[in-house]
Write a structure and sequence with these properties.
- By secondary structure, the chain is of the alpha+beta class.
- The chain folds into three domains: 2-71 and 89-99 and 106-271, Rossmann fold (3-Layer(aba) Sandwich), CATH 3.40.50; 276-374, Elongation Factor Tu (Ef-tu), domain 3; 385-521, Alpha-Beta Plaits (2-Layer Sandwich), CATH 3.30.70.3280.
- 25% of the residues lie in helices and 29% in strands.
- An eight-stranded antiparallel sheet has the order 18-17-23-14-15-22-19-20.
- Strand 14 (290-298) and strand 15 (307-315) form a beta hairpin.
- Helix 4 packs parallel to helix 5.
- The longest helix has 14 residues, at 403-416.
- The relative contact order is 0.11.
Length: 522
């Protein structure tokens, strides 16, 4: 297992989180540019353009200029293997992001310098904090009008309770962005926007901050000296504990400050380590193979109508063709078709190590949250969390002759987590309720039902406004109440649907012994 430990030490598995339009997809592309994974980067797509970003493979994403699915990219930098999980940027698809964050060891939080910490960023950071995921911060769009850098750091600490520790410092006298200073090396890098061509950054004009030839103004020098004097340096222990965040300034669109950030991911982000198990123990990385299914995605290749399970390798060495045991079912899955995925592109994977993400093609009995392990080495990881839905609609097939396709599509979208499908015990599949965290999920689900499964749907509103997860005892009590209905998820778990938030709050207050949770464990 020495090779496993050596290979694991080379891995960095991380996600990028941000509020919509903060620059997440652009930063992803610039990382891939540096690694040579792509030849050019396109500007972030807007609704007025028709160019799609590399990591946004779904046709609907290209039309809307948003990321609503999670892509995986593997590339190398400085002799390390980086696994980047590109999470959905749209606020309505935060549920998928929660699952993806269960597969990473660190996160890069992208902030729009002018807007600071925005609501979606705050929500996603809360997930990182709850999971103990260390966060590196990239303050983006510094080449635009922004608050003073100290104000930006204050906003991070005030809003998130996270101490920002600047690794780089912007050179921006009188509001003109001129570059950044790497405080670790006292080197200054000049920003030259006019030199940016084809997504690549112009030649850096690097200078010693302490040298006589430095072009950095005296005011900026004094700011850096003040930071040094108060000890605003990176505390690695605080970073790994989740109480502090190394902060970098730059412009992803202009590809400035990105290289320093990428170097820091290799230097600071933790490699894969022993992973907590459901029984309270840990699975060491040098134990036999184990993995966590954190995402299911269908039709990555529309020509083959396939279904892929994304698996984070947690321990041991994965070998293509071996039999993996699904702890939930006790059945074996032969990993004959294992791939690395980059957008729609695939590459066969013969082996993988802790931290890597592999795609198992057409592993039909796997669902998100499943724990896989080698024969004779059982393990089960904690369930993936999801939140109770906030929007509800009853789905009907517009063509009754395509009922089979309708049911197949609904089951697939439910397994992927595009929507949660709730069924009433007395109605079954006749009128399933689609439930979602955000309304955009309905738009994507209906689009996919028509274009991928050939089963257009019609959605009708329901009388429900609030959902709470409950248990079997709670289901029995709630079944006899007015303005409450108990539906079932595909797992059989009961979900209480309330006519209004007032009703939900009243029932909870009158029945404190009932389980009525906003967090659902798969």
């Amino acid at each position: 297992m020495a090779a496993v430990e050596t290979e694991a030490a080379r891995r960095r598995t991380f996600a990028i989180i941000s509020h919509p339009d903060a620059g997440k997809t652009t930063l992803t592309e610039k990382f891939l540019l540096y690694a040579g994974a792509i030849g050019r980067a396109g500007a972030v797509q807007t609704r007025k353009t028709d160019r799609a970003t590399t990591s946004d493979w779904l046709e609907l994403e290209q039309q809307r200029g948003i990321s609503v699915s999670s892509a995986v990219a593997r590339f190398e930098h400085d002799s390390h293997v980086l696994n980047l999980l590109d999470t959905p940027g749209h606020r309505d698809f935060s549920e998928d992001t929660y699952r993806v964050l269960s597969g990473v060891d660190a996160a890069v939080m992208v902030l729009d310098a002018a807007r600071g910490v925005e609501p979606q960023t705050e929500k996603l950071y809360a997930v990182c904090k709850a999971r103990g995921t260390p966060v590196i911060t990239f303050v983006n769009k510094m080449d635009r009008p922004t608050p003073e850098p100290l104000e930006i750091l204050d906003d991070i600490e005030r809003t998130l309770g996270l101490v920002g520790q600047p690794v780089t410092w912007p050179i921006k006298p009188e509001g003109q962005f001129q570059g950044v200073i790497d405080r670790r090396t006292a080197r200054a890098f000049r920003f030259e926007a006019a030199g940016v061509r084809g997504g690549q950054m112009a030649q850096e004009d690097e200078a010693d901050l302490t040298g006589s030839d430095s072009w950095v103004s005296e005011d900026v020098r004094e700011e850096v000296e003040l930071l040094d004097a108060i000890g605003a340096d990176v505390d690695v222990d605080a970073f790994l504990a989740g109480t502090a965040s190394p902060v970098f300034f730059g412009s992803a669109l202009s590809n400035f400050g990105v290289r320093l950030l990428l170097d820091a991911i290799v230097e600071l982000a933790p490699p894969p380590a022993a992973r907590p198990t459901r029984d309270g123990g840990h699975r060491a990385i040098d134990e036999p193979f184990s993995g966590l299914v954190f995402k299911i995605q269908a039709n990555l290749d529309p020509r083959h109508r396939d279904r892929m399970a994304f698996v984070r390798v947690c321990s041991g060495r994965f070998e293509r063709g071996e039999t993996l045991i699904n702890h939930r079912t006790g059945r074996g899955t032969t990993a004959k078709y294992a791939t690395a995925v980059f957008g729609r592109d695939r590459e066969t994977v013969d082996e993988a190590y802790p931290g890597d993400v592999i795609g198992l093609i057409n592993a039909m009995d796997l669902v998100a949250g499943d724990s896989l392990h080698a024969q004779g080495a059982p393990v089960v990881f904690p369930p993936l969390p999801t939140f109770t839905p906030e929007h509800f609609a009853t789905a009907h097939p517009t063509d009754r002759n395509r009922t089979k396709q309708f049911r197949k599509g609904v089951d697939q979208l439910d397994e992927e987590g595009v929507v949660q499908v709730l069924r009433h015990p007395d109605l079954g599949d006749q009128a399933p309720i689609w439930a979602a965290v955000g309304r955009l999920q309905f738009e994507v689900a209906t689009w996919r039902m028509e274009h991928e499964f050939g089963a257009p749907v019609r959605l009708e509103g329901t009388r429900f406004e609030v959902a709470r997860a409950t248990d079997e005892d709670g289901a029995k009590v709630l079944a006899g109440m007015r303005d409450v209905e108990v539906y079932r998820r595909s797992t059989g778990a009961p979900m209480a649907l309330f006519r209004s938030r007032f009703v939900a709050d009243r029932v909870a207050a009158d029945n404190p012994e009932l389980m009525l949770d906003t967090l659902v464990l798969s």
